[in-house]
Every structure is written in structure tokens, then in C-alpha cells.
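User: For my dataset I need records formatted as: sequence, then C-alpha cells, nothing else. Please produce one.
Assistant:
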Amino acid sequence: MTSDDPTLNILLVEDDPVHAHLATAALHPAPEGWDWRLKHVETLAAACALTETPDLILLDLTLPDARGLDTLHRLRERFAFVPVVLLTAVEDPDIEATALQAGAQDFLGKDELTARTLRRVVRYSMERHRRQQDLMRLSTRDELTGLCNRRGFLTAAEPLARLAERGNRTFLVFFADLDGLKAINDTHGHHVGDEALRDAAWILTHSFRSADIIGRIGGDEFAIFAPDAPPETIEIMIRRVSKWQAERNAEPDRPYKVSLIRRQAALASAAGCTLLHACYGCAPGSRARTTSQFRRARAAARRDSDASRSPVPE
């Protein structure tokens, strides 16, 4: 669902043909003012194999290849930011409370699969999700640069790191600093220093892929999470940063030059670190574990700063 295509893509994950038919019939046709498209799969594996991200998921917790809350956890690893409505055959307040804490948007009993009820749940779930996403953007975006802040970087990178672990794929974490920010602030004022930070964000945004996660994690510190990155990616990324940095610095009448200092890059896989440093996201665990692994990778890069800090060449 985008501004260009307002169609709401709903994924129904339900193996029972009777309940699947009831849900499908309840959603067709879409009510006035709405346009949605329903896709039905019968297993968790089939849902996770989809290449197109749905806008809303209706999920049965009892599937041939997954049962209970593990079904929800695994699905949210694949579609981390998609609202999920659980379809339940029995009422269990404890499971419902736990599932809501795990990220479920709502519950609907399978005996309530009527057009009025299911359509209301879809509309309300999407509206709640939209408001939650608005709040999330406010709390996870760096206001100055528009990049992820530290919380946003970790929130976005965590599910990608877990997917890499499950799929035995590698990912790269790249650390860089904006060199000389204090001198720019002292010489030209903090408003010019802010502009330098925005320039650094512009360079990084142009240098990395749209699928990469870029964050400002400290005053002059930036980090990039690049999923599915092979070892040769490091040098390719450095060349791209060099190219865009040179282009930015070539603009006339600039009171400063942007110079990004490369600290270290950490390449990791499900099996562990394969280059330079241990990197967060190498192993399964909680958000706290992910954060601590990130801190260790960041600290390792800092410990090697005398040897590894080098300006990105122009």
C-alpha cells in the first residue's frame, strides 16, 4: 500500500479451508472507500517465502508447520513491521496478553468471522498501526539528518540480522565518523556544523543501497547495516563514499570540506564473524543481546581507532 497504489494487500495464513473461505467471503467485496487485495497461503513456510511484503496479515496460530506463539515470532522475523491480527479458535487471556506484547495488533475468534466484524478489525488495526508507526518515526529518526537515530538503527537492523542468522547469510556493519566537527563548530558556528552533519548523511545515503540501514548513532558517528554483503562489498562501499564525498566537496563557496573517517567494518554470518570484529546480530537472542553485541562491535572499532581510522580518499 503506497501513495501510488492505495490497494491494501492482506495476507491470510490459514490451513483450515472452512475458516479460509469464511474470511475470504467476509472481505469480499471491499467496503466503499477501501480497496484491498487478499492472498491466501496455508503454511508459515509459504508465507515467509513471499517476496512481496503485505500490508496486513491475518494469522492462524495452529498451522501444519508451526504452532502457538512461535508462529507469530517467526512471521514477525520475516515481516517485522507489518501489523498482524491473530485468528484463534479458543479464548485464552494469557496467550492473548503475551501475543500483544510480542507485537500482535488484535485478536479475532474464528467464530466471529463475519463481514462486519472482520472488516472492522482490518480498519481499526490499520489505523492503530498507522498511528504507532507515526510515533515510531518520531522516536527513531534523527531530526537533524533524517537518518535513523541509535534506537531506530537497532530496531531496523535486528530483524535483518536474525533473518541472516536463519538463512546462513552474511551482513556488514560499517562505522564512520565525521572528521573535524568540533573545529567546524568552533570556527563557523553550530549551524554550519549541523550543515556538515547533513552533508555526511547525504553522502552516506547516496553511497549505500536503499536496502541498507543508515544511522547517526552519536554526535559525529554513523553506522550502516548492509544485509547480504559479501567481503568485497567493503572496498566497493569505500569507493562509493569517496565518489560522493568528492562531489559534495566540489560545490563552490563551501566554508569546510566534509571528511568521513572510516573506523572499521565488521562482516558477520550466522556461523560467526568472518572478518575483523565480532558483530552484533551473529547469534539469536533478545533485543538486549543485540544491543550488547552492537556495543561490542562499536567498542572494538574504537579500540583499533589508531590503526584503522583512515580518511575516505577523494
